[in-house]
Amino acid sequence: MPRDSSREFTPKVVTGNALIEGDVIYLTAADDWTRDLARAELLTDEATARLRLMMAEGQPDIVVGPYLAEVAQGADGPRPVHFREAFRSTGPSNYFHGKQAGGA
Amino acid sequence: MYSYSEFDAAFVAERNRQFRQQVERRLSGALTEEEFKPLRLMNGLYLQLHAYMLRVAIPYGTLDSRQMRQLAMIAERWDKGYGHFTTRQNIQYNWPKLRDVPDILDALAEVEMHAIQTSGNTIRNVTADHFAGAAADELADPRPVAELIRQWSTDHPEFQFLPRKFKIAVTGSPNDRAVTMAHDIGLQIVSREGEIGYRVIVGGGLGRTPMLGKVLREFVPQADLLPYLEATVSVWNLLGRRDNKYKSRIKITVHEHGIEDIRARVEERFNLIRPSFGGVDQALFEQIRAAFAPPAFRTRSSEGYHAARAADPVFRAWCDTNLAAHRAPGYAIVQISLKAHGATPGDASAAQMRAMADLAERYGHDALRISHEQNVILPHVHEADLPALHEELRRHGLATANIGLISEIIACPGMDYCTLATARSIPIAQQIATRFDELRLEHEIGDLKIKISGCINACGHHHVGHIGILGLDRAGAENYQITLGGDHTQDAALGQRTGPGFSAEEIIPAIERIIHTYLAHRTGPEESFVSAFRRTGMAPFKHALYEVEHAHAAE
Ligand code: HEM
Ligand code: SF4
User: Fold this and answer.
1) Strands A33-34, B127-128: parallel, antiparallel or unpaired by DSSP?
2) Residue in B27, B47, B427 closest to A22 by CB
3) How far is A29 from chain B (nearest CA, A)?
4) Which atom of ligand 2 is nearest to the CA of B454?
5) How far apart are the CA of B209 and the centre of ligand 2, in A?
6) Residue B371: which CATH number?
7) CATH number for the domain that contains residue B234
8) What percent of the residues of chain A are helix, what percent strand, and what percent coil, each to the nearest 5?
């Protein structure tokens, strides 16, 4: 799929860890946070992405260490590109803990 | 067993009170994350991939049953029912919630434990031989001096902002089980004309620039040890590079200045500060030593043990791999493997922790140790109790007979937990253990240490593994580099890279090819993997790894 408007820019989501639970959260288009990558806001434009990240950085009471993670557009919403983001979106592989177990 | 002084207890209580307030202020928004992060790290609290992680110090790996039960309680109440024992003789909890951490720290303080100086640019938890006070080959128990160093370094005003972290390990035995050659300072207790003292090794370390330590001084008498250590740390504190964190460890300082130059500076500084150590440290040392007096060993018959060995091959196999020689007649050191085939190396459930605590109390003079190999040790068990102990261990899934064998792998948390990781390490350990168990080959292979790290920081000690595995990210895929010939003992050596790495799918077959090459080339079962490697060199292994189209797959 061509990503013409933003040339080099590849799609991103804003993500970080929740302050209290420490688990992985993603920024949604409705300005709140989700624990499900598929429900995150897909950012295809660099300027918007930067703005959304700044907004996240302004919420230190919710999120720790927000950053832009690379994703691809999947059938049900954003999906991870790199294996690190894939693990973050599910949980560890040695136990059925974390998101894959349905909760923090 | 050493007990906190009132000063220690008050210090820990005060630190916990402060941290509770800091957490409250972080939650209320009064502290930013930038302000809070160094404070939480000072208390052992990291933020990892999926959750916070709390690292709790187990000084020189020594615990009693009460402490082990408290660790179990914490795992159950505030975590997911298990804990992870690490190569630094610490325990890590992988799932605490920020709000609960002050309560966890208070629960630790109830049993004289804490998480202070498990992070940051300080002198970290002092590690020691896990057979301390029990080993047949020991000159002196390394724990009193480790405790002396712990007290000297904890909250030491000059050493709270060092150029980087600083790790000290002590062995009391010529057979080094504390990896003293790969620490910032390694202390080896030695004897000179009947006088006990220390050989001081400096500048070892793993990480991205692995180096073995060098002898700084062959013999430092007991009375001079603390001033000598203080002189060494302060020379580095002054010279150590703060401009580049990859060059800040003392190994680089030693490398850049040369050991002679460092030695001269340390001696000069030592002569200057020696008089200020008025002997208080010596009085303290004697007190500490008394607290580590050996338990009252008893004389009993070992007949039942010998009968059980003869009658039960499973028991015998376990004894052959998991026991080590004790100094007291009729006693054995029991190594409980936390490396059941297919399990996560170093993990123990709360139920297992309680079982081990009960066994230590019933059969082991109430003593437990955590080894850098991520196992639990019962240092003092009479042979007469071994059959019953083994039976109990079996009931709790703790009787895996694989100490020193290929499945007894050290693995760091890797990308299953760690934010710095470039690849996973736990699943590789699980697969190797499972595979060689299926092949029924591990006893045939014999003494072999595999160590796995999930990035170049080398927390899994891969450089000193007979087979080291380093997980990397190559173009967005996990890739594993192999080193061979490393050694973590008194014959310390850094492993050599075989060549290009292997994908996650290829790494297990690659390890199999290495093992089959060893089996084909060894002079006999008495020639261990690492001895064979030293004799043959890399060539046959390289050939098997990279040149043979169809490796002799095991049936
Ligand atoms: C939050 C998780 C961890 C972080 C952030 C972390 C960070 C690091 C870093 C940055 C280094 C390299 C230091 C240097 O080269 O200057 C290192 C080394 C090391 N770490 Fe960890 N580590 C973690 C977990 C562990 C665990 C679980 C263990 C024990 C299993 C461990 C034991 C060690 C050891 C033995 C070394 C190498 C010795 C040396 O300091 O040279 N670490 N760690
Ligand atoms: S070696 Fe790397 S991946 Fe493994 S625990 Fe250390 S920092 Fe994390």
Assistant:
1) unpaired
2) B47
3) 23
4) 3
5) 15
6) 3.90.480.20
7) 3.30.413.10
8) 25, 30, 45
State if residue B93 touches ligand 1 by the CB under 6 angstroms criterion: no
- What pLDDT, on the 0 to 100 scale, is given for residue A7? 61
Dist CA B273 CA B262 (whole Å): 16
Contact at CB, A95 and B80, closer than 8 angstroms: yes
CA of B425 to the centre of ligand 2 (A): 9
Token couple for A85: 């983001």
Let me know if B39 is exposed, middle or buried by CB neighbors in 10 A (0-12, 13-18, 19+). Answer: middle
Q: A47: how many CB neighbours lie within 10 A of its CB? A: 10
Does the Cβ of B91 fall within 6 Å of ligand 1?
no
Q: How many domains does chain A have?
A: 1
CA of A97 to the centre of ligand 1 (A): 24
Q: How far is CA B147 from CA B126, B168, B326, B357, B497, in A?
A: 8, 12, 22, 22, 38
User: What CATH number does the domain containing B63 carry?
Assistant: 3.30.70
Q: Ligand 1 pocket test: which of B93, B426, B457, B494 has the largest number of ligand atoms within 8 Å of its C-beta?
A: B457
Residues pairing with B217 in the sheet: B200
Task: Provide the edge-to-edge strand list for the sheet that holds B127-128.
Answer: B127-128, B168-171, B185-192, B195-202, B214-221
| Residue for token pair 């001079």 | B224
Contact A87 B29 (CB under 8 A): no
Considering only A80-89, B112-121, B457-466, which range has the smallest mean pLDDT?
Answer: B112-121
For residue range B49-102, list pLDDT tens digits in order: 999 999 998 988 999 999 999 999 999 999 999 999 988 889 999 999 999 999
B158 pLDDT band, cuts 50/70/90, is confident
- Domain count along chain B: 4
- Would the CB of B454 count as within 6 Å of ligand 2? yes
d(CA B77, CA B93): 12
Helix (H, G, I), strand (E, B) or coil at B497: strand
The closest-lying atom of ligand 2 relative to the alpha carbon of residue B417 is 8
**Which ligand 2 atom sits nearest the alpha carbon of residue B419?**
8
Query: Of B291, B317, B337, at which residue does a domain stop?
Result: B291
Q: Give the one of B49, B344, B477 whose C-beta lies nearest to A87's C-beta.
A: B49
For residue A32, what are the domain limits?
12-93
Please give the ipTM for the structure prediction.
0.90
Ligand nearest to the CA of B55: 1
Which residues are CB-neighbours of A35 under 8 A, at least 6 positions away? Answer: A23, A24, A25, A26, A99, A104
CA of B4: how far to CAs of B7, B9, B94, B142, B394, in Å? 8, 6, 27, 18, 35
Contact in structure between B337 and B402 (CB atoms under 8 Å): yes
- All residues of chain B having their beta carbon less than 8 Å from the beta carbon of residue A20 are 27, 97-99
- Note down the domain range covering B242: 142-291
